[in-house]
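Reopening closed ticket. The problem is back. First fold of the pair:
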Amino acid sequence: MKHTNSLLNLKTLAKRYARANRIPQHHALDLVAVELKFSHWPALMQASKDDWQVTPEDLAVTEVFLQKTLPNFHVQHEDGEAIKSRFEGIEPVEEGKIGGHSYKMMETLGDVYLTGEGWSIHVSEAPHAPPRVEIAKQSNSSNPINDSDFLQDALQIAQTRSEQIRARIASDWPRRSTKPDAEGKVRHPLGHGLSDKWFCLHCDALITGQQIADSLWHCPACHASPLDIFETAFWLSDDDEQPESIQTSNIGKNIEPKIEVVDTRFKLELNEKNITLLIRSALLEDATNTSERLGALLAAISVDEENDVSIVFDEDLWPEGKDPIQALAVADLLGIEIDQALTCMTAPFAWPGLGEYTSSTHEYTKMLLDAYANQGTVRNSG
């Protein structure tokens, strides 16, 4: 990991912590610096300009520290994938027809998706969660999902597959995780203890051992996964409102599906990947010679949670004081801000200044070969 990227990761962790705790960002930066044995953040930055570098161990220590300081703080490693691409790369486990209309059925993370032309059904791994039926807004009246008999047949197919998945999951768990003992105690399938009372991190629900076993360790109130079910509500203080028992009369019974009409038109996803792609493309337009083009290709670009961009250029490849006009214009269109910085990286070739005399990659390559040859250097093709 590059040194500049490591510093940016530290700043990102501190920024998320500051937002979660509603404190100034510089306070969060100082907390991170103190945890890494510096008096404050400016001292850490000064050390980074000398010999000190952020290590993977430093990042791990920072993550653990932030999680301990705020129990419900989680370091986010976001995927950023759009809903429309959720089936990419997933092979259907079954294909068939209902009344002459084709469908495909997929499984992912314990959930079942049944899809057809202009419609889809999602059955969650959680037994108490209602099936979700999505109907494309752009579909016409001939969409078969509008027929109640077709809908019931499709739901039956998806729910049958979901029951098979739940049975497979339960068979992999300890028996005591799905069958309470005489005192109503059950064992968490992930090893979080043995108890007759359980608590949901998401909604603070108090759940009995029988209820949590019947719901396959998903919260019956908010559908949270087993990862969010704990033996004690350690995140609550004495001053917080205490959890209340919940009613779960719908478990094991037919649940009415939630039907939504959705807009399936293409949408511009302003995620980190796409913003980085647009900004780097604009930087290439800003480049006027080969060195600057290499600088644009090698620039470290990061995007924060507000989609604001940080660009770190190699000072040997990008001129100090040169504003990336096209990149700034793209950022203005997207409604985001750009922060620029220079650092000394490792240029891919010796004499990085050679590229300032040409905009032709062919000519630049010839200049490189001649320069290396003049030094008596044998070309390394490995």
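Second fold of the pair, where the issue appears:
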Amino acid sequence: MATQQQKEFGFGTQVRKSPYFDATVRWGATGFSVYNHMYIPRDFGNPEQNFWNLVNDAILCDVAVERQVEITGPDAAQFAQLLTPRDLSKCAVGQCKYVLITNADGGILNDPILLRLEENRFWISLADSDILLWAQGVAINSGLDVTIREPDVSPLQLQGPKSGEIMQALFGDSITDLKYYWLREYDLDGIPLIVSRTGWSSELGYELYLQDGSKGDELWEKIMAAGAPFGLKPGHTSSIRRIEGGMLSYHADMDINTNPYELGLDRLVELDMEADFIGKSALKRIREEGVSRKQVGLLIDSPALTGPNTRFWTLEKEGEQVGKVTSAVFSPRLEQNIALAMVSAEFADLGTTFEVDMPGGKATATVVEMPFFDPKKAIAAS
């Protein structure tokens, strides 16, 4: 860990720093991007080494950019259901759900994790869009008795096969029976936390939701110290691993003009439940009419990519544009270039080939099964 005084980093106060920002810089973060109006570390050195650290041992990631929208009040459960097409009637206190938030046209505004902390208290752990503003706007004319705010909550992700052992070192054996997509409250030497068995990595992992931003530096150092015997490294969310796992990135693989059926996420849409939600009639129409495009997985036959794509790459069939590559990366484990893409529905069948226009020239892309690795997602649920 570096001890020398660090040069001040930033573009001004309009982009927020997390409670872990200074710690990540001390531990080697050299590059950041902006997500939900906050800095997120994106460079701790070689991204391929970060991938191997994740899949072989464990990494600790500052994901305070997953800003929380808190819903409280007598009508909190009804309001939470209003935001999402996923049936929340069986979401128990202490449970988490991956949900979509849709607008009146059925377009996806966000794909967060919803946490039910109490009977009438929910957190929405956000992907990259301003759902606090959306939820407050929806509440105004909803007729429901709710309070919508952003609490002082900052998540960390501890991910990788050694994460369970590190959590035991921190919290004792009680953590071992925390089930996949469930949460529990902890006090770690005076640091108030909500801990969940979730994460954006497709690996075994946990998220630690700090409920006191003044203790961010202390929490980071405590976790790194506990993880040292297990090979824990500071890291960043891995584009390689999340594309291997078919995990979606908002603004890249979907946006406000994408609906759940195009992504094959029918399981997150419950049109037959009695409860109403925003976009219900539009999604009924889309289900009946079918979709004109679909998301697929691709293998790209070209030299190894040196990093993820930074723009959408055109997919052509017999000279006609029929889709775009949304996320692409070289997987050192699979030794192949893998990608997520949105294509015209008639070209979504396995084995279909395209010409992809990418930096350095054109290459052939072939539709394959997705996820590319651990297709049943057994690792994360183990």
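Update: turned out to be a display glitch only; the data is intact. Residues 21-66+152-242 form a domain with the Gyrase A; domain 2 fold (CATH 3.30.1360.120). The radius of gyration is 21 Å. Please close again.
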